Amino acid sequence: MQEPTLLLLTALADAPRHGYALIQEVAAISGGRVKLRTGTLYGALDRLLGQGLVRVESEEVVDGRARRTYALTDRGCEVLTAEAERLRAVAAEAERRLSAAARAPKLRTGFAS
């Protein structure tokens, strides 16, 4: 799963949000590292809607503009849960291997003088 998709699903995991709130939430979750542009956001939301991972929770007109609020579907929650488990397993294996490498004797290279 691409990081922007993971971040969008994560941003919707605890509450429905409209587009601008999603942009802000993704930036907060990523520590400011990921800044979604409007076109990228709505392209991703359209794809996630098509996949059944998100749904339109509500639509309203604010200052003459339509505002859609998006929510995670049950399937979206299942996919996010599976991705979180996959990432946890990969992180645990990385930590295990790093720990093993730190305990292993270091090989000396080069020639003695």
Automatic annotation (TrEMBL):
Keywords: Coiled coil, DNA-binding. Residues 77-104 form a coiled coil. Pfam families: PadR (PF03551). InterPro entries: Metal_resp_DNA-bind_regulator, Tscrpt_reg_PadR_N, WH-like_DNA-bd_sf, WH_DNA-bd_sf. Residues 8-81 form the Transcription regulator PadR N-terminal domain. GO terms for molecular function: DNA binding. This is DNA-binding PadR family transcriptional regulator. It comes from Kitasatospora atroaurantiaca.
